[in-house]
Amino acid sequence: MLRKLGGVNLVDKLRRIAAPEPPTRHTAGNPADGNPAPGRLAGAFADEAQPAPGSVEVPGEEAAGPGGAFWIRTERFPLSETHGDLTLSAVADTPLKTLAGLARDPALCHIDMRRAVFFDTETTSLGGGVGTYIFLFGAGFFEDDHFVVEQYFLREVTEERALLEAVTSRLKQFDLAVSFHGKGFDVPRMQGRCTFHRVTPAMPASHLDLCLVGRSLYRGAFRDCRLQTFEKEIVGFRRADDLPGALCPQAFFDHLQGDSTLIPRVFEHNLYDILTLPAIAACFAREMEAPSHPVVLANLGSFYESQGADQRAREKYQQALEGLRGGPHPYLPRALERLALLERRAGRHAESASLLLERKDLPPCSLEALEDLAKYYEHRLRDFRSAEAATLEARSRLITGKIAVDHGTRFRWIQSLDHRLARLRRRSAANGSPSSASR
Questions:
Q1: Is the alpha carbon torsion for 249, 252, 258, 264 positive or negative?
Q2: Alpha-carbon gap, residue 57 to 399, rounded angstroms
Q3: How does DSSP assign 337-405, residue by residue?
Q4: What pTM value is reported for the model?
Q5: Distances (CA, A) of 292 to 100, 196, 288
Q6: In b/e form, how buried is each residue of 199-220, taking b as 16+ CB within 10 angstroms?
Q7: What confidence tens digit (pLDDT) does each residue in 179-220 have?
């Protein structure tokens, strides 16, 4: 018998908590921020003969776990199959050790793909709190000559504890967890639900978040660093008629109300995400081993510089410049500035000055490049006229507003430049050479 709370069935009460009043289906929206355009959701299915609500079967089967019955769908993919441009066998054989430094996890030097579990969740909300359910948990792993994907689905909110115990039992069998934004989103949601049900959460000792690695490697290379962007740009896989992630929660709410029409497409969306995780991990590892994209090279230069590895940073910046100059790419000015600084640290002042000369003529205007040139001319070459010319150019750009700074900063910088000009003119006069102002 089901318990009653004030005459209300407990399951019905939990359903109402989990499924708030659904939004109007035909509300206009912006596809860029996850909302369907007018008629997008209805239009995608309106021309087809739709099954009656509740007539669609949820993929998978019932299974028994440590906490009771739960729902699971299992798919097995032979390693001979491809995902995008990659075969699953090539993905499985890619070592992860090249990502250890960028991921700041030395354990990756000793863990391979076959000891990793790749996971992704679908939740009822992007927010937190006890009202956010994980209604679909996907886990993928290599097993013998297959890649196995298990999808744990929350048929009823009363099965949540059983689902969580089944998932944690599976996760603790691996040495490494791999996710995309899992550290910031999936894991906290999982821990919150486990705490709610007093289930001990279990995760592998190491966690590779590909979102963080992808941003470090490809920031500026593509329009964004989303999973599906990497999937398309570097894996070479394009989804056809994929259900947007923003619509997955509503599909679950509909399921709780008896309409499971969109649930198979939620499973498909989650399945694509799981298949893509090892593929982009392999692509990231190969790019680290032999980087070729100029933006990746520039980002690696920044990474090595932050680690104090100046020699490696210089090498990456130098390699990046070959590709960035062809555009020119928006990353070119910063790469020139950083490499000029590293060359100066290494005592290669002439090489640094050559890079600064190239930088000063590129937008956006840079005061620092002109100031560093003035210092080089004054202190290294004792060429006071060239130093004065660089200082006057910096001052002119400040006064004319070509260098965008607030009024107070502009005033302080002009005072500093005037002080430098006065000193340079005194030194020019003492040296017997005319200043730029007298020519």
A1: positive
A2: 70
A3: HHHHHHHHHTT-HHHHHHHHHHHHTSSSP-HHHHHHHHHIIIIII--HHHHHHHHHHHHHHHHTT-S--
A4: 0.82
A5: 19, 47, 9
A6: bebebbebbbbbbbbbebbbbe
A7: 999 999 999 999 999 999 999 999 999 999 999 999 999 999
| DSSP secondary structure string for all residues of 4-52 | EETTEEHHHHHHHHHSPPPPPTT----GGGTPPPTTHHHHHHHTS-PPP
Question: In the 8-state DSSP scheme, what is residue 126?
Answer: S
Q: For 346-394, write each residue's pLDDT tens digit.
A: 999 999 999 999 999 999 999 999 999 999 999 999 999 999 999 999 9
Q: Which residues lie below 8 Å from residue 325, measured CB to CB, with a gap of 6+?
A: 332
Which of 319, 317, 370, 373 shows the shortest CA–CA distance to 342? 317
Q: For the CA atoms of 213, 217, 220, 223, what is the dihedral angle to 10 degrees? A: -50
Contacts of 215 (CB under 8 A, 6+ apart): 225
- Largest Cα–Cα separation, the chain: 105
Q: Which two tokens stand for residue 45?
A: 């299915």
Q: Buried (b) or exposed (e) across 405-431, using 16+ Cβ within 10 A?
A: eeeeebeebeeebeebbeebbebbeee
Please give the structure tokens belonging to residue 424.
Answer: 């340079």
